[in-house]
């Protein structure tokens, strides 16, 4: 009898597996890896994941971000996007310009205009796949997961009958999502996604942060409106992007509260930053023989990588020479340099330099023999180095990287170096030596890693529990904040302040009348005896 109850319990457990569709556009490695990792967490828990990969950037079409997903549906690219990206040579242009263009977001204006257009084309293209839509509808998915970068994905989920959606942003806060949820942006003390200054802002710093926020809002609005404009007439769902985004079950952000600045958030916002990192303690970060040998050669090992979007081989020659000069002056240190040109002879004269087109970054960072990480400060790399407790020199190139840089330096384990100094070997060397000479960098980095290891809620569990919960209860209306319906005057109680001001002025006016009246009366009574004397 007991045994059959046990069987029933197991059966019940099996029945709780659910079907998830992950919409993971081929756009950039950091985006794919993030959604891929969420997929892996769900697969490890026994759930059934299907990944839909529409190609957004042709050069990225092979990205999956996961080794575990078996059900993959690839969807091509709208030919108009292909044409535009080829004509604009967007990828190559971006890769070359990235080293010298201004790090501030406004320098990307030109790309952003094209981004809205291409997003609209892709929405149009997706909704034209009637057969696929039919096929996906039959699958009856329990949950859809995607990123707010493409609003069209949310409408597409709706079209195939998915009722419960989780927005999973591979970035820190997106302004559009914050606005849609009615979450305080706290621009006076919380540095926005693209803010080059930290949370101690003077007047002009706050002006900059506010303008940055408005810029982000403008970007979201233009892009979302373009995508909504591309929805077919037959589509019956909402055409209000704020409503679409606030109807999600949860909003995952790739931020970790123990690394990032403190900020107010609503219950739908869930911090998952760090769920993607395997630490040594988890037993999953191990090195192959090849890399083990590289790290064994010298006592000091430095890893140099600028991520997957900026290529070291596209650097201006002055930058390359400056790095080589520094490497040559430190023969007792091994430098592993991510350099994307295969079999390059650039560093053949330097036995302490290993060029590589790829390396297991996280596993190398997890190794005790790695001394220092020189990085562009992409969010993925920033979180990895924080978890692995490695001191770093951060050289932000663009987008959110300047913000990630000061987010890391705040913890005392990293030093920021301006990319305009990369043609000066002395500056690069000074930065490296400063971090190596002062043991506080290492101490602070290791302390942050320990904090992350011991944080009360493990990001991986947080992801799984919130997915389970979303499938069980759907999007809870009660988690929505009424704040999202208020206008700016109501939101900041400016209408009340105005009313108070009006009342105050009226009182002041009445007082003025009374005083005037009393004064006149006094004058009359003081003057009238004189009259009597007369
Ligand atoms: C935008 O796309 C057009 C082609 O439609 C191209 O000529 C232009 O260079 C692109 N702009 C940027 C900044 O990529
Ligand atoms: C680099 O060298 C390897 C082996 O020596 C060879 O297989 C590969 O094709 C080379 N790659 C390029 C781009 O030359
Ligand atoms: C670091 O220490 C070395 C050796 O003690 C010294 O030569 C170098 O000037 C120091 N560099 C910095 C930037 O402190």
TrEMBL record:
Span of the signal peptide: 1-17
Compartmental location: Membrane
A cellular component annotation (GO) from this entry: membrane
Transmembrane segments: 496-522
Reaction(s) the record says it catalyses: glucuronate acceptor + UDP-alpha-D-glucuronate = acceptor beta-D-glucuronoside + UDP + H(+)
Catalytic activity, EC: 2.4.1.17
Record's keyword annotation contains ATP-binding: no
Major enzyme class: transferase
Keyword entries, A-Z: Glycosyltransferase, Membrane, Signal, Transferase, Transmembrane, Transmembrane helix
Gene Ontology molecular-function annotations: glucuronosyltransferase activity
Membrane-topology annotation of the record: Single-pass membrane protein
Domain of life: Eukaryota
Protein family membership: Belongs to the UDP-glycosyltransferase family.
Name of the protein described by the UniProt record: UDP-glucuronosyltransferase
Organism expressing this protein natively: Caenorhabditis remanei (Caenorhabditis vulgaris)
High-level lineage: Eukaryota, Metazoa, Ecdysozoa, Nematoda, Chromadorea
